[in-house]
Specification:
The protein is an alpha/beta fold. It folds into three domains: about 70 residues; about 190 residues, UDP-N-acetylmuramoyl-L-alanine:D-glutamate ligase (3-Layer(aba) Sandwich); about 120 residues, Mur ligase, C-terminal domain (Protein-Tyrosine Phosphatase, Chain A, Alpha-Beta Complex), CATH 3.90.190.20. Helix content is about 30%, strand content about 25%. Strands 8-7-6-9-5-10-13-14 form an eight-stranded mixed sheet, sandwiched between helices. The model has no long low-confidence stretch (mean pLDDT about 95).
């Protein structure tokens, strides 16, 4: 079969090589930089039996409309490549918010050997040993799945913009939406479309459960303060964790507990789960409390929650806010706009602000900050060092959008 696989930046080369190893003739195109051997112009002059494209590619790209070849997503291509060689169990996690935390929480209670694949890294369990750091595009699932199969273990895979549908369970962690594919598609609609092949689906609150395979978290789990109770019919369970009082952790922990019950696993060990680095984890530098909310899902609302959490722990209002987007990768899929950053600064009202990236504060914020309480850093690492060096008491909140 003659195949065209698009977007080498987001894994087309990995997918193309896998299909080529199975005997197919494959052209792989770098649709953005045109640095591939076969470029767009060359591919437009050829005939293909099938086209593989990521869901975030502009639907009006000419290669998607050349000839009559059917188009499948990277997610679907990975599902076909996995075939029957799927780890047991395999849980796929997607969503605009909370997917990394959900994945880590579920891995915390899985028994035996397994692989956790997330934007924070791919880890071997039970050792928690870092194997590698790669993107969470569908193509990266192939290596993670092969590693899990090699140790006869489970796999929990965080994926962007949908799931492959090859797993035992798919989880959509959030009803939040944003536009993708040159502003022409709903990211949430693409995620919901991707679960159509999944054997079982666990949905975050407010998402419609349209088929018998779909279960909404609201129907099986309840949370009161630091306690969560889950009833899946034949399997039920409960756990207590202080993190449940935080908005950023409540739904991910409840999803992890519900997923455990759906898999026939006792969720009670979630009582011992601690905050993930970059997801409201707490550390200290001398007398200063540091709350880390720097990750790919950082938003105005998570920054505000992190500031409230920091002040509650430190018990003083003085706060240094490190906020912005990491150059090159900070925008991720859904950006952190200057307007949202200004809004976070206004609500948090820090004593000092350190900006990461080229951010325009605007008159509504700038008049409250001057060179004595404002600084700019070119990188997240530099901003952290500046914050620690210039803050002697109170707290520091790290609210930078970046891959971690």
């Amino acid at each position: 079969m003659n195949m065209l696989v698009l977007d080498t930046i987001h894994g087309a080369d990995v997918i193309g090589n896998e299909f080529a190893a199975r005997g197919h003739t494959v052209d792989v195109v770098d649709v953005y930089r045109q640095k591939s051997v076969v470029d767009t112009r060359t591919a437009l002059g050829r005939t293909y039996d099938i086209i593989v494209a990521p869901v975030h590619l502009d639907p009006d790209h000419p290669l998607l409309h050349s000839g009559n070849a059917p188009v499948i997503s990277h997610h679907e291509a990975v599902r076909r490549l996995l075939g029957d060689r799927v780890p047991q169990p395999m849980v796929e996690v997607t969503g605009a918010r909370g997917k990394t935390t959900t994945a880590f929480a579920l891995a915390h209670i899985m028994a035996g050997a397994g692989v956790l694949h997330t934007s924070a890294g791919t880890f071997l369990y039970p050792e928690h040993r870092l194997l590698w750091k790669r993107s969470i595009t569908p193509a990266s699932v192939l290596a993670a799945a092969n590693t899990a199969i090699g140790i006869n273990g489970w796999l929990i895979a965080e994926e962007s913009l949908g799931v492959t549908g090859a797993g035992s369970l798919a989880i959509i962690t959030s009803a939040d939406d944003y536009v993708c594919a040159a502003g022409k598609k709903s990211a949430l609609a693409e995620k919901l479309k991707s679960v159509k092949n999944s054997r079982r689906v666990l949905l975050a609150p407010s998402l419609p459960s349209g088929t018998p395979a779909m279960v909404n978290l609201e129907d099986i789990a309840r949370c009161s303060s630091s306690d969560c109770c889950i009833n899946c019919g034949s399997v039920s369970g409960s756990f207590h964790n202080p993190l449940l009082v935080l908005d950023a952790y409540r739904t991910p922990l409840m999803l992890a507990g519900a997923a455990a019950c759906l898999l026939g696993i006792d969720p009670s060990p979630l009582a011992g789960f601690e905050a993930v680095e970059g997801r409201l984890s707490v550390s200290r530098a001398g007398n200063v409390t540091i709350v880390d909310d720097a990750n790919s899902g950082t938003t105005m609302m998570t920054a505000i929650e992190a500031a409230g959490y920091a002040r509650a722990i430190a018990k003083v209002p003085a706060l240094t806010l490190v906020i912005g987007t990491e150059p090159e990768d900070g925008a991720v899929c859904e950006g952190f706009t200057d307007e949202e950053i200004r809004g976070a600064i206004n609500v948090i009202n820090p004593e000092r602000v350190i900006l990461v990236g080229d951010i325009l504060l605007g008159d509504d914020v700038a008049h409250r900050f001057n060179p004595t309480n404002t600084a700019r850093s070119s990188t997240f690492k530099e901003a952290c060092e500046t914050a620690i060096a210039t803050t002697s008491s109170g707290s520091i909140v790290l609210a930078v959008k970046t891959w971690r």
